[in-house]
Write a structure and sequence with these properties.
It is a single chain. The chain has about 350 residues and is α/β, with parallel strands linked by helices. It folds into two domains: about 270 residues, Alpha-Beta Barrel (TIM Barrel), CATH 3.20.20.70; about 70 residues, Helicase, Ruva Protein, domain 3 (Orthogonal Bundle), CATH 1.10.8.60. The chain has 15 helices and eight strands.
């Protein structure tokens, strides 16, 4: 039984999507071409390509892509012969007719339609459109740690009703504990009739471990990146995850050596920053705030002379989600005003 479960595991590669966050969405034509050429021989089920926030998301607020969605899809399609090409969309950033329809026309095989974990209803038309146009479609529930388990299951059921092939829960802030992952995947598997996937982030250093737990609980899909290339502390690094499964004797149709070549020869050159657990990544996971807030927090910290960690903690209290980056400045201003008030009170008190 366990062996059968292991063989059904699907691997979604988001290196050219989530990884875009890590370099401010500046993937080049050569980056996409070179990566797709080598990863096509690895045995991945899907390679997802685009702006970090998906189709139609390139903007001043979320970051302007170096390349258009059309350019990225074209390059990937030209170089993926054995691997499905995937796209990602959050309703509100992208639309059916401006973004999904052209992507399908260009040859996208699979679309992930994402919403905040309590807002699955906004994905209905998008999921149904993809399904009705004979492409695979998966629902994505982001920031899943913010919803009670019952609510999360109810939201996943909606995506199942809309026609999604599966539902992938995203640990967008890397805030999951192993017990959270275990309980969530188990409940979703026991309740839904479609595939269940997990997309971990590494803010607490648990991405590979949590992916492994999800898999052992029956997850059908693990969505990660080569070299862990992604927002903030990055994603589940697929190389050690696959190596761990191989060490346990799991026979997957994956060429680990070619994956390692992609990591060393291609992805290592994408990013001059060492992807890993810096202070802000850890605080982001602790506070439950999406990792892509980090550059905004760093800038506001310098501008208002307040501790970036305090900004993250306050953002966590406000339960911010992607798209609310403008709140960072408001939080920083309030912290600066409080700091000035406290310093004045201290000064007055010391003079009395």
């Amino acid at each position: 039984m366990e062996g059968d479960n292991l063989k059904k595991l699907m691997l979604f590669d988001s290196t050219l999507r989530d990884g875009s966050h890590a370099i401010k969405h500046q993937l080049t034509k050569d980056n996409i071409t070179d990566y797709c050429k080598i990863i096509d021989s690895v045995g991945m089920d899907v390679v997802i390509v685009g702006h970090g926030n998906g189709l139609g998301a390139s903007s001043l607020q979320t970051g302007l892509s170096l390349l258009t969605d059309e350019e990225m899809i074209f390059l990937a399609r030209q170089n993926l012969k054995n691997t499905k090409l995937g796209a990602f969309l959050i309703p509100g950033y992208g639309t059916i007719y401006n973004d999904i329809a052209p992507a399908l026309k260009q040859g996208v095989d699979l679309v992930c339609v994402a919403s905040h974990c309590t807002e699955a209803n906004i994905t209905k038309q998008h999921i149904q459109y993809v399904r009705n146009n004979n492409a695979e479609v998966y629902g994505i529930l982001m920031m899943y740690h913010m919803a009670p388990l019952k609510t999360l299951v109810d939201e996943a059921k909606k995506m199942q009703e809309y026609g999604a092939y599966g539902v992938i829960i995203m640990d967008s802030a890397g805030a999951s504990t192993p017990v959270m992952v275990q309980e969530t995947i188990r409940e979703l598997k026991n309740t839904l009739d479609i595939k269940i996937g997990f997309h971990p982030h590494n803010n607490l250093g648990l991405a590979v471990g949590n992916a492994y737990i999800a898999y052992k609980e029956g997850a059908d899909i693990i969505d990660g990146t080569v070299r862990g290339f992604g927002a903030g502390a990055g994603n589940c690094q697929l190389e050690p995850f696959i190596a761990l499964l191989q060490k346990e004797g799991v026979e997957l149709d994956i060429n680990l050596y070619e994956m390692l070549n992609a990591s060393e020869d291609i992805v290592s050159k994408f990013n001059s920053k060492n992807q890993g657990l810096d202070a802000l990544s850890i605080i982001s996971g602790l506070s439950g705030v999406f990792s892509s807030f980090a550059p905004h927090v760093s800038n506001a910290s310098k501008e208002f002379n307040v501790d970036s960690r305090d900004i993250f903690i306050e953002l966590g209290k406000r339960k911010v989600v992607g798209g609310q980056e403008d709140i960072v400045v408001d939080v920083a201003m309030n912290l600066a005003q409080k700091k000035a008030k406290d310093e004045t009170s201290y000064l007055v008190g010391s003079l009395l």
